[in-house]
Amino acid sequence: MYKLRKQKQEHKSNCLICGHPLEYLSSAFELTCFYCGKKEKGSIFCSSDRYHYVCDDCHNLSSFNYIKDFILSTGGKNPFEITFDILNNPNVTVPMLGCHHAYILTGAVLASLKNRGHIHISRADIEELFYRLSKQAVGGYCGLSGVCGIVPAGGIIYSILTGSVCGKDKEQKITMKITALLSKAVFDLTGPSCCKAYLFKALEIISASLYEDFNFLLIDNDVDITCNFKELHPHGCMREKCPYYADSYIVNVEKLKESLKDTTIEINFKLDKSSFENNNNIPPAPC
Ligand SMILES: [Zn+2]
Ligand SMILES: [Zn+2]
User: For residue 101, how far is its CA from the centre of ligand 1 (angstroms)?
Assistant: First the structure.
């Protein structure tokens, strides 16, 4: 299956197979995956007369493997640069829309934390976090349930850092704080949805929050975000409504701190990093 996909030219937006616009259904019905032949209930398919359907596993497979390898091998310390290295690599297809962006977010931040010496990450850890994401970052469900995969992606980073599992106190609270912040940011940016904008904003929020909560600084210099994806959006770029539509969008640490102050969600405690240092930073099993 993997070989077959590598031989084909995949489209970065719309239908992966033929590039036609996609249909989004309000009710799922049984469809057959073009790549693996799996029959399952789905709600997104190609509008061409060939009705292409790609299951979530196949939609994500080649880029997930690439993202995993990249996270483990990169020496990058800046999560924005790691993200753009993945998005701009011509050898991997990251569709314009899709939960790949949630995986890139988690991976880029954890790679940055690893390369700055804050945590150790093994392939088994990455498998664990990808498994968790697969449970809650599901293609198209941003529109069907109101939860974008970027939200649990941020929660997984905090869960890995704090050892949060169901039933823990401060660890779960602070994990839910970051998901609340991200959900609010996704809400602010929607109209229509844009996975690229969500990813960029989530990187800003998590970078600020990790600094505020744990004193982990992920960027040393200003970052200039340039969005090269405006013409690829199948539902239309938000243009001037999007903060990343301008030719240049500068991120710096002071701006990150300011953006956190804008939120209406406040949690008046800080987790003491020493309280979870005994976790050895090994992700616990999900509850
Ligand atoms: Zn198609
Ligand atoms: Zn499939």
Answer: 22
